[in-house]
Automatic annotation (TrEMBL), chain A:
Location of this chain's protein in the cell: Cell inner membrane; Cell membrane
Source superkingdom: Bacteria
CDD domains: TM_PBP2 (cd06261)
Name this polypeptide is given: Trehalose transport system permease protein SugA
Residues passing through the membrane, by range: 7-31, 59-88, 100-121, 159-179, 200-224, 257-278
Gene3D superfamilies reported for this sequence: MetI-like
Keyword annotations from UniProtKB, A to Z: Cell inner membrane, Cell membrane, Membrane, Transmembrane, Transmembrane helix, Transport
Any one GO cellular component localisation term in the record: plasma membrane
Ranges where the ABC transmembrane type-1 domain occurs: 63-275
PROSITE patterns xref list: ABC_TM1
Protein family per UniProt: Belongs to the binding-protein-dependent transport system permease family.
Membrane topology reported for the UniProt record: Multi-pass membrane protein
Keyword Membrane listed: yes
From TrEMBL, chain B:
Keyword Ribonucleoprotein: no
Single GO term (MF): ABC-type ferric iron transporter activity
Gene: sugC
Pfam families (UniProt xref): ABC_tran (PF00005), TOBE_2 (PF08402)
Entry keywords, A to Z: ATP-binding, Cell membrane, Hydrolase, Ion transport, Iron, Iron transport, Membrane, Nucleotide-binding, Transport
Broad enzyme group: hydrolase
Annotated family: Belongs to the ABC transporter superfamily.
Organism the protein comes from: Flavimaricola marinus
Boundaries of every ABC transporter domain copy: 4-236
Cellular component GO terms held in the UniProt record: ATP-binding cassette (ABC) transporter complex
Known EC number: 3.6.3.-
Organism superkingdom: Bacteria
Taxonomic path: Bacteria, Pseudomonadati, Pseudomonadota, Alphaproteobacteria, Rhodobacterales
The protein's name: Trehalose import ATP-binding protein SugC
């Protein structure tokens, strides 16, 4: 038996699971999005579900909101993570403890984080009560709406809280591998601290930063639970919209749910490609 | 052209028991190339980084043309450091690497392009500006690193073991290139190396650092002819150290009395002379009768271990010179007085 055959046979169990679950699920979803659901009598494939969602204003609002959540969370997380990594790579007393605390919430599930955001930032949460207690506002309900708000501030806060250490850990490891010699060369050649960061360190960490931010972007664009818990009812993020259609009492809504899900997959793939291309062009300059 | 003065430069790293560099003082004349020589870990790169402003000294001062530069940031000092492992920016082309320092200074891009082209010609890499560093050989990368440093016309050029990653023939080529460019541009240059041959060939003066402490700062030939102490002599390949007493004019040791040069030290100590300075045959003063104990062919040289007066002497010379000499032979050698040197015990 050739080595190639052996490798294929060894990989077969894993490939079968991936093939069945991922591509199988995708294929079923795709068929349903084309209005093909024989169990409810839909046997003629067509584009009706796509036509319906593209002619619905709510879809566009949901898309804009979802993009805003993913893009803003990713950008803010990247900026804060790079800043944190720059601080944490230096030697200082207590660095081990600070580093531990920085990474601690990597172990906390997103849902727990979302509940924490509710407790802290909602209009009945701790900060609202404290602000009322300290007479900064007359009553807790006057606290700015940071949760269930149209700008998705609560959702973004939760994602930033969770993703900063995720990106930070990757970037910190990246920086430690690169070392400080390249920046020393730049400084010696006349670059200021900012120039050596902008023209030397940033391009060197760009591949790691791009990879990490792509993961965060893809996750935040397609995630359901946090927008469902912390988001406004209207417009809702795309995954929430898809779930609502899917769980509608009318089974005929399912093709629309599947069409939204397929579009989420396609749009996030397209945006990730664009994002990678832009970030590489921008940082490599 | 910048005169560099290092005054009692000391570096103690946090938590270290002893200083990495202990009171290094050097005066480097404008346009000179000085080698800081020493084994790995002796503190020479630390000294270089402090001159570049990349490390702060624990004590001491660094002056360029009489002005302390300790408070100047690395990008304001006018010194440029070329690192041992080139450290070309991998995502930039060769031209962008070479022009980096000019770009940071806000020089017009058209002017940068012209100067980069000229600089690449000077380092014998014309037409390679569009390549990425990964497409260059080690020697070419080192020349790009040198070009990147020289293009900004630094006051002081700092070279950290620039030849150590190159193979033998590239080292020779690069050595000549460094010397030629340094002399053409009259840039005060400090060159760190652990290779005494490189230091001797390239440098106007050599500072030898052992265990974080400078042992001798002198012209290269003086390390062979007048080493400051036994450690310096041994570092430079000294093999003969004969204990005895000197009265300033002659040395009394295990093989009798030998005549010393006029400036020899008086008192107890060690007589030292280099193996290549021992003369085969009995001509001139200081003749000694010896037994050939060992003969080793070393390629371009032959080494003899000789016994005389209960002590051993090592001599080396052209292999042809020792054709008739065999182990067990009795031969006569002479020690020319001007090649002898007394060291304190």
């Amino acid at each position: 038996m050739s080595d190639r055959t052996k490798i294929i046979l060894l990989l077969l169990p894993a490939l079968s699971v991936i093939g069945l679950l991922f591509f199988g699920g995708l294929a079923i979803g795709l068929m349903r999005s084309f209005n093909y659901m024989p169990v409810i009598g839909l046997t003629e494939p067509n584009l009706a579900a796509y036509v319906a969602i593209f002619s619905d204003r709510e879809f566009y609002l949901s898309f804009a909101l979802t993009f805003h959540i993913a893009f803003t969370s990713t950008v803010i997380s990247c900026v804060l993570a790079v800043g944190a990594a720059l601080l944490l790579r230096r030697a200082f007393i207590g660095r081990v403890i600070i580093n531990f605390l920085f990474q601690l919430n990597l172990t906390v599930p997103h849902l727990v984080g979302a509940i924490g955001i509710l407790y802290l930032f909602s209009q009945s949460g701790s900060f609202a009560r404290l602000a009322a207690e300290w007479e900064l506002i007359a009553r807790p309900a006057e606290f700015p709406a940071l949760v269930y708000d149209p700008y998705a501030i609560g959702i973004i806060l939760q994602y930033v809280w969770k993703e900063v250490p995720f990106i930070g850990v990757i970037i910190l490891a990246n920086m430690q591998t690169i070392g400080e010699d390249y920046e020393s060369v730049a400084r010696s050649l006349g670059a200021s601290k900012w120039q050596s960061f902008r023209h030397v360190l940033l391009p060197l960490i760009a591949p790691g930063l791009s990879s990490a931010s792509v993961i965060v972007f893809a996750f935040t664009f397609g995630a359901y639970e946090i927008p469902a818990l912390l988001g406004a009812n209207y417009p809702a993020a795309l995954p929430v919209l898809a779930y609502r259609s899917y769980t509608d009492v009318d089974l005929a809504s399912r093709p629309e749910a599947m069409a939204i899900a397929i579009l989420i997959a396609l749009l996030s793939a397209a945006m990730l490609c664009a994002y990678i291309r832009l970030s590489r062009r921008g940082m490599g300059r | 052209m910048t005169h560099v003065s290092l005054q009692d430069l000391t570096k103690v790293y946090p938590g270290a028991a002893s200083p990495a560099l202990d009171r290094l003082s050097l005066e480097i004349a404008s346009g000179d190339l000085v080698a800081i020589l020493g084994p790995s870990g002796c503190g020479k790169t630390t000294a270089m980084k402090m001159v570049a402003g990349l490390l702060s000294p624990s004590a001491g001062n660094i002056l360029f043309d009489g002005r302390s530069v300790l408070k100047d940031k690395p990008n304001e000092r006018g010194s440029v450091m070329v690192f041992q492992n080139h450290l070309l920016f991998p995502y930039m082309t060769v031209a962008a690497n070479v022009g980096f320092g000019l770009k940071m200074r806000g020089v017009d891009p058209v002017q940068i392009a012209q100067r980069v082209d000229r600089m690449l010609e000077q380092v014998r890499l014309p037409g390679l500006g569009g390549r990425k560093p990964s497409e260059l050989s080690g020697g070419q990368q080192q020349r790009v690193a040198l070009a990147r440093a020289l293009i900004v016309q630094p006051k002081v050029l700092l070279l950290d073991e620039p030849l150590s990653n190159l193979d033998a023939h590239l080292r020779l080529e690069m050595r000549d290139l460094i010397r030629t460019l340094q002399q053409e541009m009259s840039i005060t240059t400090i060159f760190v190396t652990h290779d005494q041959e490189e230091a001797v060939i390239l440098a106007d003066k050599v500072a030898l650092i052992l265990d974080g402490e400078m042992r001798q700062y002198d012209k290269a030939d003086m390390f062979y002819r007048r080493p400051a102490d036994g450690a310096v002599a041994r570092f430079f390949g000294g093999r003969n150290f004969i204990p005895g007493t000197s009265d300033g004019a002659s040395f009394e040791g295990p093989f009798g009395s030998v005549k010393l040069p006029p400036d020899a030290m008086a008192g107890r100590g060690e007589l030292t002379f280099r193996p290549e300075n021992v003369v085969l045959g009995g001509c001139g003063p200081n003749q000694l009768a010896c037994l050939v104990a060992q003969k080793t062919f070393l390629g371009t040289q032959t080494r003899l271990i000789l016994n005389t007066g209960g002590t051993s002497i090592e001599m080396t010379g052209n292999p042809a010179q020792f054709d008739g000499v065999r182990v067990g032979d009795h031969i006569t050698i002479s020690l020319p007085p001007d090649t002898l040197w007394m060291l304190t015990a």
